[in-house]
Amino acid sequence: MTTTNYAVAPGEYLEEWIEDNGLSQQGAADRLGYSRKHVNEIVNGRAPVTADTAARLQRVVGIPADAWLRYESAYRADLARIADEEHLADHFDDIHPSAATYLRSLGATTATKREPGRFVSDFLAFHRCGTWDAYTHMHDSATRGDYALAALTESNATVDSTVLSTWLRAAEFSESFERGRSLSYAPDQLEAALPTLRQRAATPDDRMLLDIAAMLEDVGVVFMVVPPPANFPLLGMTRWIDKRVPVIQQTGRWGKDGFAIWTLFHELGHVLNDPRGEMHLEYRTEKKRTSAAEKLANTFAMQVLFGENGLEPFRGLSADREISRRAAEVGVAPGVAVHQMHRKRWLPYDYGNRLFVELSGTFNA
Fold first, then answer.
1. Residue 222: domain span
2. For every residue of 2-64, which 3-state class applies, written as one string?
3. pTM of the entire structure?
4. Is residue 102 included in any domain, yes or no?
5. What's the whole-number mean pLDDT along residues 43-72?
6. Distance between CA atoms of 151 and 346, rounded to whole angstroms?
7. Helices and strands (H, E) in the chain, number of each type
8. Adjacent-strand bridge partners of 239
9. H or E segment and range at residue 281
């Protein structure tokens, strides 16, 4: 629905009728049974068109009473909306430009910086918040509980809260997330499924993410890829639906199998080992992961993917053929081994890149 930045008082229609009929406001007042002052206040939008006034206007002007009441209702609603948007416009600069661009790409708003109040209103509507204070309260509460953002503070990351919240909210419109609301998470079944998940991840292809999503859904875990805003510094994150169902959400931007698979198993470590309800963010820069929970998740991923010996069997290797052969012996994708060898500085960053497999960045599961 198209909105305007002005409100039309129903009295403007009355004023037009007065002029068309060669009357004065006093003449109209005489016909309506009101004082001239009252008619002037109606014309200028200061006095409302009540049910009684609408009935009189119907008899004098010929426009049905219910139409006059609709005009009045629309006028008051527009006044309230304009005042609200003028207030919300003060928060336009609180929303990061990347969040604004992302919101437009999702079709959640068409407003620009020329309509700051409408844009902020659309931003709040996207997040299902009635006021800016409600939005900030939701975010502040999140940092202390269900929606914990402790990793942001610990790592001194520069993830803007409006960008992060918009990406997280975008996921909630997906079919995967909606199905997740009815899932029953079974940690023992997830533990039992780890070997099968590891085996599927050892042969990456364009169907791998879909297959893994289906396997995880069977044990009550949501796995999804949601394209992120521009310059987003995260590979993925773990959160929960009502502290019941874990959600692993990846960006897919770094679509090489080594990044995606390692991030997935790292996040599975959070799901299995951390308190329900905590959020954990997986950064593209390893230095960002400094907490004990992050180190534990890294240890979990290393043990599940590489076994008791960890990355040690790959020490000293540099040729693609050698890495591929050893990866086959260990039972992991070569790209995962290269990713970890790069991370530990065991392999120069310009080596092993041909062993990565490009994955499909998005999927509908």
1. 176-355
2. CCCCCCCCCHHHHHHHHHHCCCCHHHHHHHHCCCHHHHHHHHCCCCCCCHHHHHHHHHHHCCC
3. 0.78
4. no
5. 96
6. 27
7. 17, 4
8. 247
9. strand 280-283
